[in-house]
Amino acid sequence: MDPFDVLGVETDANESDVSRAYRERVKEAHPDQGGSREAFMRIQQAYAAIRNGNVEVAEDGSAESTAATEPTATHDQGPPPGTARMEYLDFEVLSDHGWEIDDDDLFEAASNADLEPGEYGRLLVDREETLLEAAERCGFAWPYACRGGACANCAVLLREGEVEMADSHVLPEGMVEEGIRLSCLCRPRSDELQVVYNVKHLPGLDELRLPSQRF
Ligand code: FES
Hints:
Its cofactor is [2Fe-2S] cluster. Pfam families: DnaJ, Fer2. The protein is an alpha+beta fold. The chain is about 25% helix and about 20% strand. The protein has two domains: about 5-70, DnaJ domain (Helix Hairpins); about 85-210, Beta-grasp domain (Ubiquitin-like (UB roll)), CATH 3.10.20. A five-stranded mixed beta sheet has the order 4-3-9-5-7. Strands 1-2 form a two-stranded antiparallel ribbon. Helix 2 packs antiparallel against helix 3 (about 35-50).
């Protein structure tokens, strides 16, 4: 394996180019994004080989990993650097299954319920993008109206994890304490998140909604 080839960088690439390429490739290939575990591990191995100096570059410019042992990365080792893994669930499906939003095993039940990808799943969120942007990047149409903190259309319930939410005065303090967040304003600050989205019809949020035309 030519680690530079796997990451798509020149053999004389500097550390920050290698690191940037690694982050891009590993995000594309991550199993949470639909990539294969093999491709994901190959990228991790390539990066580890370069970082640890376990690469031999031949005169013709080709390179080969000399790592004696390869990392045994697995899907459960956590999200790639600079990202968070968000497990999401559509509030709309809860009543169909007799689930309550505060059920302790809500996400476990959802993971065993054979739901559609738009209803339940996991996706990677870049630390610099909002939860709403990440969902849209993955092709999902999560609700929103203003995209600026002036309504509750994009509200989600954060069950696990930490996010940083830009200033908004629309949510009453009690709701923030209960875990309600605005997905258009939140960026991940922990590796793992659990989010119930589409909670705009919860009591107290319904009246904060705007007409849902997109502007
Ligand atoms: S869409 Fe209005 S606050 Fe997020």
